[in-house]
Specification:
Blueprint: H1 3-6, H2 9-20, E1 25-27, H3 28-35, H4 39-52, E2 55-60, E3 63-68, H5 75-85, H6 87-94, E4 100-108, H7 109-112, E5 124-130, H8 132-146, E6 152-155, H9 157-165, H10 169-176, E7 179-183, H11 186-190
Parallel strand pairs: 5-6
Antiparallel strand pairs: 1-3, 2-3, 4-5, 4-7
Length: about 190
């Protein structure tokens, strides 16, 4: 089943489109324009992904629209993988040397799943010695792409350890919610 998902460059681009924008539906010509590939190759990959059950389609006003199915067995794993290679997660990993000495970096599960923005939710949490101007530039770029504010919190390792040992509600809230680890060992991060 996995071989059906990762054999083609066009398929990877289509997966990135759908999983970088959870909940969105696109018609065929829009997909072709966004992934910048030939229409026949895109149609072939859409048919294969629909056959695996990862995509569903429906006709609306003479146009066929496709969307990712959240109930697919690998949906959340693929969503996590795509968020590590594209968007904010991909930018953090790509620019890791410029960002300083990072021990842990996580994206919140709500951010990865494309849930509506809430001011109290942290989208990106980074522990370590962070170069804030570099991180700020990456965040601003993603904010422009997503057309929404991104809440991020950098924290030193010492502050994180202190607040975690004190069971600080802010840190415990981050550790208790679903997340995607970008950098670091998740077991080590959450152990008390």
């Amino acid at each position: 089943m996995l071989i059906d998902l990762f054999i083609s460059k066009v398929r990877v681009k289509v997966l990135e489109l759908f999983l970088s924008n959870p909940g969105q539906t696109y018609h065929v010509r829009d997909i072709v324009r966004r992934v910048d590939e030939e229409i026949n190759a895109v149609r072939r990959e859409l048919a294969r992904l629909e056959k695996t059950g990862l995509l569903s389609s429906e006709w609306r006003a003479n146009r066929r629209y496709y969307g990712a199915k959240r109930d697919h067995i690998f949906y959340f794993e693929l969503l996590s993988m795509i968020n590590k290679s594209t968007g904010l997660g991909g930018a953090v990993l790509k620019n890791r040397p410029k960002l300083g000495k990072i021990r842990y970096a996580i994206l919140s599960g709500a951010f990865v799943r494309g849930r509506a923005y809430t001011p109290n939710e942290i989208d990106l949490f980074i522990v370590g010695t962070v170069v804030l101007p570099e991180l700020g530039a990456i965040v601003r770029e993603e904010e422009a792409r997503r057309n929404r504010e991104i809440n991020f919190t950098p924290m030193t390792e010492e502050e994180f350890a202190f607040r975690k040992n004190r069971r600080d509600p802010f840190v415990m809230g981050i550790l208790s919610k679903p997340r995607v680890m970008l950098i670091g060992d998740e077991d080590e991060m959450v152990k008390l």
